[in-house]
Write a structure and sequence with these properties.
The chain is mainly alpha-helical and 98 residues long. Helices cover 79% and strands 4% of the residues. The chain has helices at residues 4-19, 26-46, 52-67, 74-97; strands at 23-24, 70-71.
């Protein structure tokens, strides 16, 4: 029998393999920016670090996967790195204020 932590680790590893080397385009950049805005709005509206888990999960799954991908062009690469900074700052802020 597997613990829930072991199952989660296996799922995360499978997700990393699935995302690794994927093509990252303008749509991914827009989606990541929209998610940053949505999570920020959620935090501002509800406070108390309620968005913290969602921010961390999105950063460690989707955004980390984008960073491991192949970029459509240099603008997309810069945009993904920029939005990674936004999500990382949000994670740090929510950790400090919760």
């Amino acid at each position: 029998m597997f613990s829930s932590a072991q199952v989660q680790i296996a799922a995360d590893r499978g997700n990393e393999r699935r995302i690794l080397g994927r093509s990252v385009g303008l749509g991914d950049r827009h989606a990541a920016r929209e998610m940053a805005a949505l999570l920020s709005t959620m935090d501002q509206g509800h406070g108390g670090g309620r968005a913290r888990t969602a921010v961390v999960r999105y950063l460690t799954t989707e955004v980390a996967g984008y960073l491991n991908g192949t970029f459509a062009d240099d603008g997309v690469r810069r945009g993904i790195r920029s939005v990674t900074t936004v999500h990382t700052r949000a994670t740090a802020y929510l950790a400090a204020t919760a």
